[in-house]
Design brief:
The chain has 155 residues and is an alpha+beta fold. Helix content is 15%, strand content 32%. Strands 3, 4, 6, 7 and 8 form a 5-stranded antiparallel β-sheet that branches. Strands 1, 2, 5 and 9 form a 4-stranded mixed β-sheet that branches. The protein starts with a helix and ends in a 17-residue tail after the last strand. Keywords: Signal. This is Lipoprotein.
Length: 155
């Protein structure tokens, strides 16, 4: 009888520990400000990629980095695979990938390649009053030695 009671107490304690861990961890994409918007390169929607919202510690901002997948020129940190970030001064980074047809991988353009459209683009911005809406256009500067378009870093 005592052994059964101890096993029940142990199972209850383990269950409470698991529940507490999930409560502290949260749902991933529910923390911080949720950002959404459009992402373009040369005025055209970026077919696929990733956008990151890194709090700018040099400006006194801290917290976890937010991120979202880019699909057809749109992103939303509250979507699956995304994470919100604190508001305030940020370093926003964009990575964009060409459609498979543009990379010579076939017809249709629905598939995405692993060919970067441009080097990783970063820009310092202040999202203190963004209210979750932020659009960004990746600027073109000149082709690099590899023939890939170059971009300005922190213009």
């Amino acid at each position: 009888m005592l052994r059964t009671h101890l096993a029940s107490v142990r199972n209850l304690a383990l269950g409470l520990l698991v529940c507490t861990t999930f409560a502290i961890a949260g749902c991933g994409n529910s923390s911080g400000t949720q950002y959404s918007g459009s992402v373009t390169f040369q005025g055209q929607p970026i077919p696929s990629g990733k956008i990151y919202f890194q709090p700018d510690s040099t400006q006194g901002n801290s917290g976890q980095t937010g991120y979202a997948n880019i699909k057809d020129g749109k992103y939303d940190t509250s979507s699956d695979g995304g994470m919100g970030a604190p508001s305030g001064p940020m370093i926003v980074a964009v990575e964009g990938f060409a459609p498979a047809s543009a990379a010579g991988a076939g017809e249709g353009g629905d598939e995405v390649s692993n060919v970067r459209m441009f080097p990783r683009f970063e820009k310092a911005v202040d999202l203190t009053s963004a209210n979750g809406k932020f659009d960004i256009d990746v600027p073109v500067v000149a082709p690099t030695a590899t023939g890939q378009p170059g971009v300005m870093v922190n213009p």
